[in-house]
C-alpha cells in the first residue's frame, strides 16, 4: 500500500496551481511569434540549462529508464553514459547545433528550406511533426501508470486526473508559449533535481549499497553489470544507444529549440556542455531507482506479483510502486510533484515544438508564407489544443498492445534517421543536393518497420516469418538514409547552390 | 570482473550525483538572475513597442 497521504496531495495541488498562475502571468510578455516560440531568443546559459534539463528529464524518460534498470540492472547505466558523453562532445565541438544557431533558424525544417528548398522543408516538417506527435502518444499512459502506483488512485479517476493535468499544460502553454515554458521549467528543474538526488540517497540508505550490488549479481549475474554480456542489451544495442545520445541532444527538435533560443553561440556551447550532466543523470538516476526496485521486490515478492522479469511491460510499474513503499509522507509528495513537473515540462515543450513546426514549416509555406504574425500565433495555439486532444484519445483512452520503449524509439526514428543525413550533409558537405535530401527523408520513413503491428502486416503480405529488433532496424535505416543522401547528391547535383538568407548562414552552409 | 564493473558504476553514480548537485545549486541561483534579466528585457520591449505584429 502506498504511503501517499493528505500532506502529499496538498504539496502536489499547490505546485500545480502555481504552474497555472505562472502561465497566466507570463502571457503579458508574448507579443509576436518569436516571443511565443523562442522567448525572443533571450535565454542566457543558466536558464537555458535549467529549461533544457527540465524538458529532457521527462516523466516518460524516468519511467522507461527505470524500466531498463529493472530489467537490465547496472548494465543499463551504459545508456546514461552514452547520452552524457555525446552531449559533452556536442557542447565542446558545437557539432550541428552551433551552425544551426548561427543561421538563426527556429526549427530544423527551416534549415531544410535554406539548404535544400521549400519542398524539402514541407516534407521534412510533416514527417517531423507526425513522428513527434506519435512519439508523444504514450506520455500520458506512462504518466498514468506513475500516478496510479504512487497515489493508489484507481479506475476512471485516474483518467480524469490525467485529463485535468493535460488540460493544465494546454492552458499555460497556449497562453504563455516559450515564456511560460522557461519559467515553469525552471521551477520544475529545481523541484525535480533536488527530489531525485534526495530520493537516490534515501534508497541507498534504506537498501545499502552492498546489498544492492549483491542483489543484482544474484538476479542477473555478470550480465547485470556488463552491457555487452547482458542478454537485455549487447553490442548492437550499445551502438544504437550512442547514436540515440547524439539524436536526443543535437537532432531532436525539442533539444535543438534550446540552441535556437540561446542568446549567442557561446551560450549554446555552454548550455550543451553543462547540460551533458543532466543528459547523463536523467537516465542514470531512474536506472538506479529501477534496479533498487528490482532488489527490493526480490526480497518482498508479495508486493510485486507481476514478477521480476518485467514481462508485458510490468517493469514500468516497479519504480513508482517502490517509491510509494519506500518514501515517507511529505518527501513522497515532493517527489510526486517533481515527477508531475517532469511530466508537464516535457508536454509543454513538445506541444509547442510540434505545433510550431506544423505552423511554420508546413501550413505557412504551403500558403506561400502570406500568413501574418498574428495568424501564425493563433494557428499555433489552435494546433496545441488539437494535438492535446489527439494525445488524450490516443494515449489514455485507446489500448496499445506493444512495448512502450520500442514504440518510442521507432516513432522517433521515423524522423531522426532522415534528419541525421540532412543535417550532417547539409551543414558539412557542399555537394549535398535536394534530390539526395528527398531520398534520405523518404528512406528514413522505413524505420516504421520497427513497429510490431507494421512488421506483422508486412510478414502477412510477404508470407515470411521475420523478427526484426528495433535497434537493427534503426541502425540499418540510418545507414540507408545516409547512403541515399550521398548517392542522390552525386547522381543529381543541384543546378544552383543553396540560397541562404544572410551572409552568416552562407558561411555556415559552405564551410 | 563483476567487482570491477560494480566499482566503476558506483563511482559513475557517485561522481554524477555530486556534479549534478553542484550544477543544480549553481543553475538554481544563476537561473533566477537570468529570469529577472529576461523579464526586464521583455518589459522593456513592451514599453518600447513590440518588433512584430501585436497580438
Main sheet summary of chain A: none
What is the percent of helical residues of chain B? over 70%
State the assembly state of the protein chains.
Answer: heterodimer
Briefly note the structural class of the backbone of chain B: mainly alpha
State the share of residues found in helices of chain A, binned by percent: over 70%
Helix-strand topology string of chain B: H
Descriptive account of the structure:
The complex is a heterodimer of chains A (511) and B (55). Chain A has 511 residues and is an all-alpha fold. Chain A is 77% helix and 0% strand. Chain B has 55 residues and is mainly α. Chain B is built from one helix and no strands. Chain B starts with a helix and ends in a 7-residue tail after the last helix.
Question: What's the layout of helices and strands?
Answer:
The complex is a heterodimer of chains A (511) and B (55).
Chain A: H1 6-26, H2 33-38, H3 45-56, H4 59-72, H5 77-93, H6 97-103, H7 108-116, H8 118-135, H9 139-151, H10 155-207, H11 209-220, H12 235-251, H13 253-261, H14 265-299, H15 315-326, H16 331-366, H17 373-397, H18 404-428, H19 434-444, H20 452-462, H21 470-491, H22 503-510
Helix pairs in contact in A: 1-10, 1-16, 3-10, 3-13, 3-14, 4-14, 4-15, 5-12, 5-14, 6-13, 6-22, 7-8, 7-18, 8-16, 8-18, 8-19, 9-10, 9-15, 9-16, 9-17, 10-14, 10-16, 10-17, 11-14, 12-21, 14-15, 16-17, 18-19, 18-21, 19-21
Chain B: H1 2-48
